[in-house]
């Protein structure tokens, strides 16, 4: 079995190291874009494939469900059989799945294709991060590389709607998938020549029962959180799924802690800096996913802009995170990672506060300020990644990467579920029963109006009611403002927590062995 001894005695040249990072980052941006591009393409897919409401949910959700469930097993497989091999295999799977969309004639086939994309994504995401730990052996250089990696990940999510909107202006929804094919083919070719192979000297022992538990537990947990956000806290099916998922994951955690060489090394959480990095990653994705979703709804429904215009309107967040993330490690070298990590999360929290304190009616200027603050807070993601990867021994880099990527998935799901539910509840309470009844709507139409701002827009379009949308817009804007207060409180609390967890004199060059 090969180890990393070749890399230790003959490090990659500087040119090859940064070229390898370019390959890893380019592949990651494709995965990140795929997480959000479907939000723009879904209405076109629904119309073309005549997807039911349940099928629409599965088209959106199946990708993240499969991805979240397979991150840990795929990381263990990569450590055993080679990270480069699994990464290139992931590129190939992602390209093949994207090409198969040409044969999708119904919603069921597209759901299967999205599942295959999730498998490819699970092979790619943690492997890109763990490869950086292998390629960049110098802690300072690695911190810069991780800053770029974090920026690419965040930028990819943010520009997904822009890319999707642009493609749909000139082509069918198939283009949202087919764009992946040439990019992944290039990644495979470049990866063959530029990326080194690495297998853990002592790979984690394969655990079939543990694999079933982690896959089933993650899928059940993520599905339940998504379903609670859609159906409300009183939905019994969601809670059954949540309890089953939580029980499976609890059993998996106990199993890992009792085994000498577990599939997932959860003892990494004994390091307070590692824990702080994971918490920072989870909370930033919590903030970003929720604010991007709510702002996209506000821009398209309340302001009435097109999907492409809405995507372009969110570019301030893209520019901010693209600038802040690569610079964050340099700032951390000057003032310490503790200050940058906690400060970045606090700045992201200020983005929510800006929405809450903005004069009413809410304007795009106020939203742009919030998006810039959110993007600037992305510096915490870069420093958090550096703390996570430096806090894990080289042989455990795959475990650390899997845990970080899992925190991204859970953070995104929790952000949409929790802050989305808060916004929905405030929106519903802002619609007076007297005002709704005065519009002369049927019970079904009134329920659709109360369910979401998109439902209100649909009812207004079908009934021609001129009074409905002003009421719904006011209620949604109020909901967005109140959600901003909740987001600010959550992010401030997390900022304080991670500041406490990171030792005062800890540096990014401190690392585990």
At a glance:
The chain has 513 residues and is an all-alpha fold. It is 80% helix and 0% strand. It is built from 22 helices and no strands.
Structure overview:
It is a single chain. This protein is mainly alpha-helical and 513 residues long. Helix content is 80%, strand content 0%. The protein is built from 22 helices and no strands. Helix 4 packs antiparallel against helix 18 and helix 15 (337-357) packs antiparallel against helix 22 (468-501). The protein is globular. It starts with a helix and ends in a 12-residue tail after the last helix. Mean pLDDT is 81; it is low at 1-10.
Report the helical percentage. over 70%
Mean pLDDT: 81
Strand content: under 5%
Residue runs with pLDDT of under 50 for 5 or more positions:
1-10
Order of helices and strands: HHHHHHHHHHHHHHHHHHHHHH
Q: Helix count?
A: 22
Given the C-alpha coordinates, what overall shape results?
Answer: globular
Number of strands: 0
N-C termini distance = 21 Å
Radius of gyration: 23 Å
Decide which structural class fits the backbone. Answer: mainly alpha
Largest sheet: none
